[in-house]
Specification:
Elements (H helix, E strand, L loop, with lengths): L3 H9 L5 H10 L7 H15 L2 H13 L4 H27 L2 H4 L8 H4 L5 H15 L2 H13 L4 H20 L6
Helix pairs in contact: 2-10, 3-4, 3-5, 3-8, 3-10, 5-8, 8-9, 8-10
Length: 178
């Protein structure tokens, strides 16, 4: 059951996006992902979708569900790092010149090596954000890291369903503003 902030947010999604309203409720239900994994992915996706109202509502809901500040920080880190990496690695992929691929990125990503929670969970959040940001190279890299970290394709699938729905919720909340 969603808390009052998230319910108010879902109610604010216009009827033109009723499917998104229903899907948002569905992807937040328990499933393959642990509660911590689910909220980490939801938060990282909301931060990546750049809708302040959505981010605030899901942050409050995650706290109410017992997610600690350390994992909320991991979600913020995933969104921030992928905002950088998805641009950089998408550029290298799109241009396709070996000369760019041979150069070191020289971009700090220490949080990926030292997350607050399990590394596979942070990789799952980075995968979700990379899918939102449309970086094929990062999606492939993080999907492999998630599987190598012991999670399954079912975990990946559920995380991407969440990312897609949270991103659509962010768009839907802006529909009546034009």
């Amino acid at each position: 059951m969603a808390g009052p902030e998230l319910e108010a947010l879902r109610a604010a999604i216009p009827d033109a996006a009723k499917d998104i309203r229903l899907n948002l409720e569905a992807v937040l239900q328990p499933g393959t992902l642990s509660s911590a994994q689910r909220w980490l992915v939801v938060l990282a996706s909301a931060y990546a979708a750049r809708n302040a109202r959505l981010s605030a509502a899901v942050t409050a809901e995650a706290r109410a569900a017992g997610l600690g500040e350390d994992l909320i920080d991991d979600a913020r880190s995933a969104a921030a790092l992928m905002a950088m990496n998805n641009v950089y690695y998408r550029f290298r992929h799109v241009v396709g010149k070996p000369s760019y691929a041979e150069r070191p990125a020289r971009l700090r990503m220490n949080k990926l090596a030292r997350p607050s929670g399990p590394r596979a969970d942070l990789e799952l959040a980075c995968l979700a954000v990379s899918a939102i940001n449309g970086c094929e190279a990062c999606v492939r890299s993080h999907e492999a890291a998630v599987l190598e970290g012991g999670l399954t394709e079912e975990h990946v699938h559920d995380a991407i369903r969440i990312a897609a729905t949270v991103n659509a919720a962010a768009v839907s909340l802006e529909l009546d503003r034009g």
